[in-house]
C-alpha cells in the first residue's frame, strides 16, 4: 500500500470515509499551498527554477489537506499544522519509512536537475538573481525592523506642513482619482496665502519638536533595556575634519615659535651691535 493510500486510510478513520468527502472537490490534485507563499527571486525574474521536494511530513500534510478542508473549511494554517503534526505522530512506521525512501529518491533527482539548471544560467541571469536576492533580504530586514519599532512603541515621525494641510481638507472623501486629487491639492498649496501656510508650518514645527523629544526619551529607554542597536547612530566626524582640526593648533604653535625666534634674533642683534658712542 503506497503512502497516498495510507494517508486516505487515515482520513477515512478520522472523517468517516474519504470517498464521501472528495467528490465535488475538483482541485484536490492541483499543487497545494501549505503556508503563505511568496515568490522567489527567480520567479520574479521569470526564471523557472527546480523546486526542492517536500519532506515526508509536509508531503503528508499536502495529502491530508483536502480532507481536512472539507471537514473544516475555516481552519487556520496554525491549527492545520497542529492537527497534521498530531496525526503524523500516530502514523505507522511502515508508511513513514516508505515516504522517507520516496523523499530520498526525489532528492537525488532534484540535485541532478539543479546542477543542469545552474549550468544553464547565463552570467547576466546569475548577476540579476544575486542583486534581487540582496534587495529582497534588505526589504525583509526593513520590515522586521519596522515591526520591532511598532512593538516597542517607537514614536511615529511627525507630518510635514503640506501633509497637515492635505489632511485638513474636507474634500478628501470625495476624491475618485487620487492622482488628480493630489495635483489639485498641490496647486492649492502653492497658491495658499502666506499667513495660512505659516499656520501649518508652525503646527508642523511643534509636532517635530515633540517627536524629537519623545524619540530621545524612547532611545534612552532602549539603552536602559539593552537595545542600543535600535538607537540612531550619531554621525562621526570625517577624517579630513580631524586632520584639519589637528593642524590648527600646530599652525598656531608654529607661528608663535617663529615669532619667538624672530624676537630672539633681534635681541641677539642688539647685543652684538657695536656702541656708536665708542
From TrEMBL:
Species, as recorded: Pieris brassicae (White butterfly)
PANTHER family, alphabetized: HIGH MOBILITY GROUP PROTEIN DSP1 (PTHR48112), MITOCHONDRIAL TRANSCRIPTION FACTOR A, ISOFORM B (PTHR48112:SF22)
Matching Pfam families: HMG_box (PF00505), HMG_box_2 (PF09011)
Coiled coil (UniProt feature): 107-149
Name by which UniProt lists this protein: HMG box domain-containing protein
Keyword Translocase: no
Keywords, alphabetical: Coiled coil, DNA-binding, Nucleus
Region feature Disordered, mapped onto this chain: 226-278
DNA-binding region: 50-118, 155-219
A Gene Ontology term for the protein's cellular component: nucleus
A GO biological-process term: regulation of transcription by RNA polymerase II
Recorded GO MF terms: DNA binding
Start-end of Polar residues biased regions: 247-278
Amino acid at each position: 500500500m503506497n503512502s497516498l493510500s495510507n494517508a486516505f486510510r487515515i482520513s477515512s478513520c478520522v472523517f468517516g470515509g474519504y470517498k464521501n468527502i472528495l467528490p465535488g472537490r475538483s482541485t484536490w490534485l492541483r499543487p497545494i499551498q501549505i503556508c503563505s507563499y511568496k515568490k522567489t527571486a527567480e520567479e520574479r525574474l521569470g526564471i523557472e527554477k527546480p523546486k526542492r521536494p517536500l519532506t515526508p511530513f509536509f508531503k503528508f500534510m499536502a495529502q491530508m489537506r483536502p480532507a481536512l478542508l472539507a471537514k473544516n473549511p475555516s481552519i487556520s494554517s496554525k491549527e492545520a499544522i497542529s492537527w497534521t503534526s498530531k496525526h503524523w505522530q500516530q502514523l505507522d512506521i511502515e508508511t513513514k519509512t516508505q515516504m522517507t525512501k520516496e523523499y530520498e529518491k526525489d532528492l537525488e533527482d532534484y540535485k541532478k536537475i539543479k546542477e543542469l539548471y545552474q549550468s544553464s544560467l547565463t552570467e547576466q541571469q546569475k548577476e540579476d538573481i544575486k542583486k534581487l536576492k540582496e534587495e529582497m533580504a534588505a526589504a525583509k530586514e526593513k520590515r522586521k525592523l519596522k515591526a520591532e519599532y511598532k512593538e516597542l512603541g517607537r514614536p511615529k515621525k511627525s507630518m510635514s506642513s503640506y501633509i497637515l494641510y492635505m489632511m485638513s481638507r474636507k474634500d478628501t472623501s470625495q476624491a475618485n482619482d487620487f492622482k488628480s486629487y493630489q495635483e489639485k491639492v498641490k496647486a492649492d498649496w502653492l497658491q495658499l496665502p502666506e499667513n495660512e501656510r505659516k499656520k501649518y508650518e508652525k503646527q508642523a514645527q511643534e509636532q517635530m519638536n515633540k517627536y524629537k523629544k519623545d524619540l530621545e526619551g524612547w532611545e534612552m529607554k532602549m539603552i536602559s533595556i539593552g537595545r542600543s542597536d535600535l538607537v540612531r547612530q550619531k554621525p562621526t566626524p570625517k577624517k579630513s575634519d580631524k586632520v584639519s582640526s589637528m593642524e590648527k593648533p600646530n599652525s598656531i604653535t608654529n607661528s608663535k615659535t617663529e615669532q619667538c625666534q624672530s624676537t630672539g634674533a633681534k635681541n641677539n642683534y642688539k647685543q652684538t651691535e657695536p656702541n656708536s658712542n665708542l
